[in-house]
């Protein structure tokens, strides 16, 4: 049994006339009649009572045509779904994102993506840049929103935004009345940081920044989340260096200072697998790029 035969039977049932059904389908009447006969032979039942004056559905024909309509509708839906998925307008795409990106990038991104591709489900997974590299290679995620990711042989890394780094000090700190400082002004201060094994790139940038400013780093405490890190600064455990977007967390008891040092920045990157044929992944990367292009 073929979909074409179902379509022919449904057309004959609608028209109750083989000639009109053939005209509607743009096929020769003998061909249509032969296909319906072949279908009846395959089924082992007659679908139509034929006389020289009329065509009527048999009880078996009524049951078959009702089911055939649903099958044809399902087949068309399947075709549309496949075409839409191939075009990137339907399906699922999984985004891995660093925690700091969730503060000011993610809300707008989700809205833009939902507007651009309402039939594409966006699955979100918070993970570090290191975790994203592995997840991309293992096809656990389709797109990564990371920080300071360098070029990779098997990954397409695109820089979206260069974000300033800020120093964070408690409001009791001698520098809290300043707006801009150099990293050298923090000499003698202990630092609160995220764990080095989770954010090695952020650590490396801080170390390079401190070395260039002649600062010997002293570490007071690690925190797993930026909210905890800011709370520790407010508690006067130490000072910190964070991306400017972290300021949106609005922690009381802290003061943010712009760092004037060369290299006091962090890149936000969008990454996909090179050669990935999933159009929803490239579409999401394009939405990310458009989001930042429109604000620059």
From TrEMBL:
PROSITE patterns: HTH_LYSR. Belongs to the LysR transcriptional regulatory family. It comes from Nocardioides eburneiflavus. The keyword Flavoprotein does not apply. One of its GO terms (molecular function) is DNA binding. PANTHER family: HCA OPERON TRANSCRIPTIONAL ACTIVATOR HCAR, TRANSCRIPTIONAL DUAL REGULATOR HCAR-RELATED. Pfam families: HTH_1, LysR_substrate. Keywords: DNA-binding, Transcription, Transcription regulation. Transmembrane segments: none annotated. Residues 1-58 form the HTH lysR-type domain. One of its GO terms (cellular component) is protein-DNA complex. CDD domains: PBP2_LTTR_aromatics_like (cd08414). This is LysR family transcriptional regulator. SUPFAM superfamilies: Periplasmic binding protein-like II, Winged helix' DNA-binding domain.
């Amino acid at each position: 049994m073929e979909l074409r035969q179902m379509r022919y039977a449904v057309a004959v049932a609608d028209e109750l006339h083989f000639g009109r059904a053939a005209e509607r389908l743009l096929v020769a009447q003998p061909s249509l009649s032969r296909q319906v006969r072949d279908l009846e032979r395959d089924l082992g039942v007659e679908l139509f009572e034929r006389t020289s004056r009329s065509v009527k559905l048999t009880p078996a024909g009524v049951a078959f045509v009702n089911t055939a309509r649903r099958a044809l509708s399902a087949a068309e839906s399947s075709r549309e779904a496949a075409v839409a998925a191939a075009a990137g307008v339907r399906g699922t795409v999984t985004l891995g994102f660093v925690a700091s990106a969730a503060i000011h990038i993610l809300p707008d991104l989700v809205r833009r993506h939902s507007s651009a591709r309402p039939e594409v489900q966006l699955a979100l997974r918070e993970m570090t840049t290191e975790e994203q590299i592995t997840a991309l290679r293992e096809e656990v995620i389709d797109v990564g929103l990371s920080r300071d990711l360098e070029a990779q042989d098997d990954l397409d890394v695109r820089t979206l935004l260069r974000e300033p780094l800020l120093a964070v000090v408690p409001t009791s700190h001698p520098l809290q009345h300043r707006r801009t400082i150099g990293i050298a002004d923090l000499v003698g201060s202990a630092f609160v940081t995220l764990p080095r094994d989770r954010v090695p790139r952020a650590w490396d940038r801080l170390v390079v920044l401190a070395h260039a400013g002649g600062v010997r780093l002293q570490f007071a405490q690690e925190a797993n989340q930026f909210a905890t890190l800011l709370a520790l600064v407010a508690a006067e455990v130490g000072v910190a260096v964070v991306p400017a977007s972290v300021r949106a967390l609005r922690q009381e008891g802290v003061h943010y200072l712009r760092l004037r040092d060369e290299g006091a920045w962090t890149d936000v990157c969008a990454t996909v697998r090179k050669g990935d044929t999933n159009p929803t992944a490239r579409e999401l990367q394009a939405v990310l790029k458009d989001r930042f292009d429109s604000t620059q």
